[in-house]
Each structure stands twice: as structure tokens, then as C-alpha cells.
Design a protein that fits this description.
Elements: E1 4-11, H1 15-26, E2 32-35, E3 51-53, E4 62-63, H2 64-78, E5 81-83, E6 87-91, E7 97-101, E8 105-116, E9 120-122, E10 138-140, H3 141-151, E11 158-162, H4 166-177, E12 181-186, H5 196-203, E13 210-211, E14 214-220, E15 227-232, E16 245-248, E17 251-254, E18 258-260, H6 263-267, E19 292-294, H7 305-323, E20 334-338, E21 342-346, E22 349-350, E23 356-362, E24 370-374, E25 379-383, E26 392-396, H8 398-402, E27 410-417
Parallel strand pairs: 1-2, 1-8, 2-5, 8-19, 10-17, 11-12, 11-17, 12-13, 20-27
Antiparallel strand pairs: 3-4, 6-7, 7-8, 9-18, 14-15, 15-16, 20-22, 21-23, 23-26, 24-25, 24-27
Helix pairs in contact: 1-2, 1-7, 3-4, 4-5
Length: 418
């Protein structure tokens, strides 16, 4: 099959990828192709039938499918092309992609610029090293969500949730709605991993017990899960002697973290950040391979789809400018560094050629008044709190960056109690 050449190629048709296609077309790209491995467009939001999407973008509360429908309609109106049921199995440093499709066979897509928007995947049981057998009944929360919301199957009747990521919290409520009993949610950290609103709406409203500083240390059962052993943890995350208890259940859902999906980024030679697991970017969403851009959860895991879509539009726009030879050359390279209470952040450096928004998560919660800031007097904002489950941001104005002395090589972002 002959190769395909486009102005901008996008991998992934979730919220970041669809928005990137729109951004590229709006910036003047002629042919924009979004490649999706699934049969349908929308990514993970196809199965997120709960409300809570679109409050920032559309100023109203939508379900995941409703939110994506609006973006997909905008993309079609903008002239974005979609190729579904197509797996990208190879990526090259020049941004070209190896693709396989049942109808077209194996072929290559070349482009003036490429946007990576593959999203993220869930951390499985094998990644957290819980001893015991491997019976049926243990699922990641997202897999269970797809079973219930899209396939019409219930994973079990009596569940425990390990981890307090947002999908796990939402699935605790969903299991209750479908008639199952949820014994409890257990979180290894002393604070919740998901949004506070999901704690209130999905656990508190349904009387589901929530235990911090607890973890599952053994699974029981041979053919089917019969229960788990749970233990309380001390401040060093070591088991408290005598705190073990058996919790009977036939289902355990895992919400123990998300991992950016970056096999293609690595294939293409884009440098990967050792902490976030996503590609290293500048404020233009440009990776260390100049023709390759990235946006959304493939870079760092976000809490709101609105931010993912917003990034996608910007990445697509800049990719189109690069393909046209109109993207400005970097003025300088200022590294972004997290302070004492910041671990995950993006972008990782700024060039000073555009306004920049640095998104980050704090390492530990601050429940009192705090200030979110970038040093050198670049930015400061007061907040009521800062929590690991919720993104924070600092905004860096291009003019302020340009005014920094030449000997400044890095910018520290942080959050601290006032």
C-alpha cells in the first residue's frame, strides 16, 4: 500500500488528539489526519458516562460521550480527517509513522509535523507486587468501567477498591448503582488520590467506607477471588503489627495510578522525563525531536479533560506552524524545576518565545492558605489549599521571561503555606 503524506499527523483520537486536529486546521494546515486504534473516536471518554466534563470549556456539565461529541463535530466541521481501527506500531525521529489497518494493510504516514496524543494506561496488579494467587475478579478500574458502561457486564457482586484515583472513586459509586456491595476503598497514602468532589459525590453520598494509610497485602482465592487481607500502615508506610484483617469480596478494582503511554515517543527518540514518564517538552508542546509535539495525558496525567483538550489545541496549532516553517526559533532555554513540594510538572523548559502555563501537582497536601508561585517574581497566586489530586498552574508571561537576566537558567515553581 502506498504511503500517505499529510501536513500534520496526530496519533490518538481522545480529547487531546481530536483537539490537536482542530488546532492544526485552525492554524492553516492543509491536510490533518488523526489516527485511532479503536473502532470509534473519543478515547477513554467513550466509557465515562458520568457527568462532570466541559465545565471550563463549554460552561455546562456534560458526560464524557457528550463532551467528545462536541469536539468531534468541531473537528469534522474544521476538515480534520480520521482513520479509525488503525494501529500505529512504529514511530521515527522525523515524525513518520508505521500504521496497519485491516483494509489498507501496512503503510507509512509522513508529515510536516506529528502530534503524539496516546493518553495513558492504568497500573496493573503486577506493578504493585501484592503476593497471593491470581484469581479471576481482579480488574483495573478502567477495565471494569468499560465492562459495565459499554459491554453490559458486571465484574462482581461484592467489591473492594484499592487506591483512590478518580476512576476508582467513580466506579465505587457505579457498582452501587448496579446493585453490588462495595466494602471499602483503601488508600496507601495519608491523603486521597482523586478530586475532592469525587470523594464527596461517590463515597460520602453512598456511605462507602474510605480508609487512608491502608493497603491490600494479600489476595485469597484460586479460581475466583474470595477476599483480601488489608493492613494499616504507619508514617513510613510499614504494616502496623496486629492490624491485619480479612475482607471478603469477589472483586477488587485497582485505581493505583496511571502511566503515560509512551512507547511511540521512545521509538521516535524523544527524550523521556524520568519522573513523569512523559516526553520532555517546551511551552510550545515540542519534544526534543523538533517535528514531534505531544499533548495531554501522554505527557503528564491531568485531572480534567478540559485541560487536556486545551493543550491539544495548542499543540496542534504549533505543529501546523512548524510544518509551514512559521514556528519561531527558541530565544533561550530556561529549565523548569519543581520546588520542595512539587514532583510532577509540564512543560519542562520554556524558550521565552510565547506565554507559558506550567501545570503541576504538589507532593503533599496543604490544607491551609498557600501561595502558588514561580521564582524571580514571575508569578504568584494565593489559594485556599493545594492537593496532590488536583492540578495547579503558574502562568509565565513572555514579556516577563524576556526581561530575565541572561545568567538566569532555571525557574522554580512551588506551593507553600502562607
Amino acid at each position: 500500500m502506498s504511503d500517505i503524506h499529510v501536513d500534520v499527523a496526530v496519533v490518538g483520537a481522545g480529547p487531546a488528539g481530536v483537539a490537536a486536529g482542530i488546532g492544526a486546521r485552525e492554524a492553516g494546515a492543509g491536510r490533518v489526519l488523526v489516527i485511532e486504534r479503536d473502532w470509534d473516536l473519543g478515547g477513554i471518554l467513550q466509557q465515562c458516562i458520568h457527568p462532570g466534563f466541559g465545565l471550563h470549556t463549554f460552561k455546562e456539565e456534560l458526560t464524557g460521550p457528550e463532551y467528545m461529541h462536541r469536539w468531534i463535530e468541531r473537528a469534522r466541521e474544521a476538515g480534520v480527517e480520521f482513520m479509525t481501527n488503525s494501529m500505529v506500531f512504529g514511530a521515527h525521529p522525523d515524525g513518520s509513522l508505521d500504521v496497519m489497518n485491516p483494509d489498507r494493510g501496512v503503510f507509512r504516514v509522513t508529515s510536516g509535523a506529528t502530534v503524539l496524543a496516546m493518553g495513558c494506561r492504568e497500573r496493573p496488579l503486577g506493578a504493585i507486587n501484592i503476593p497471593g494467587s491470581r484469581p479471576a475478579g481482579i480488574y483495573t478500574a478502567g477495565t471494569a468501567q468499560r465492562f459495565v458502561n459499554m459491554e453490559g457486564y458486571m465484574p462482581g457482586d461484592r467489591a473492594v477498591i484499592l487506591g483512590s484515583g478518580d476512576i476508582g472513586l467513580i466506579m465505587a459509586r457505579r457498582m452501587i448503582w448496579e446493585g453490588a456491595k462495595v466494602e471499602a476503598v483503601f488508600e496507601i497514602m495519608p491523603w486521597a488520590g482523586g478530586l475532592r468532589r469525587n470523594i464527596a459525590q461517590c463515597l460520602d453520598d453512598y456511605g462507602i467506607p474510605f480508609y487512608l494509610n491502608h493497603s491490600v497485602v494479600r489476595v485469597h482465592g484460586h479460581d475466583r477471588l474470595e477476599g483480601v487481607t488489608v493492613v494499616e500502615l504507619d508514617s513510613d508506610r510499614r504494616p502496623v503489627p496486629g492490624s491485619e484483617r480479612f475482607v471478603p469480596c469477589d472483586t477488587m478494582l485497582l485505581a493505583v495510578g496511571l502511566i503515560p503511554e509512551n512507547e511511540l515517543s521512545r521509538m521516535a527518540g524523544a527524550e523521556i522525563h524520568p519522573v513523569t514518564g512523559g516526553p520532555i517538552l517546551n511551552e510550545l508542546y515540542q519534544t526534543t525531536r523538533p517535528s514531534i509535539f505531544a499533548a495531554g495525558n501522554v505527557v503528564i496525567v491531568y485531572d480534567l479533560a478540559d485541560w487536556v483538550s486545551q493543550e491539544g489545541v495548542a499543540a496542534g496549532r504549533n505543529a501546523a506552524l512548524y510544518a509551514a516553517g512559521a514556528l519561531p526559533e527558541p530565544a533561550r532555554r530556561l529549565a523548569i524545576r519543581g520546588g520542595k513540594n512539587v514532583r510532577l510538572f509540564s512543560p519542562h523548559y520554556v524558550t521565552g518565545g510565547a506565554d507559558a502555563t506550567v501545570y503541576f501537582r504538589v507532593t503533599r497536601p496543604i490544607e491551609k492558605r498557600c501561595r502558588v508561585f514561580a521564582d524571580h517574581g514571575l508569578y504568584e497566586r494565593r489559594e485556599r489549599y493545594a492537593r496532590p489530586g488536583e492540578m495547579n498552574e503558574v502562568r509565565l508571561a513572555r514579556e516577563a521571561l524576556a526581561a530575565l537576566p541572561d545568567d538566569v537558567t532555571e525557574i522554580v515553581v512551588d506551593a507553600e503555606e502562607v
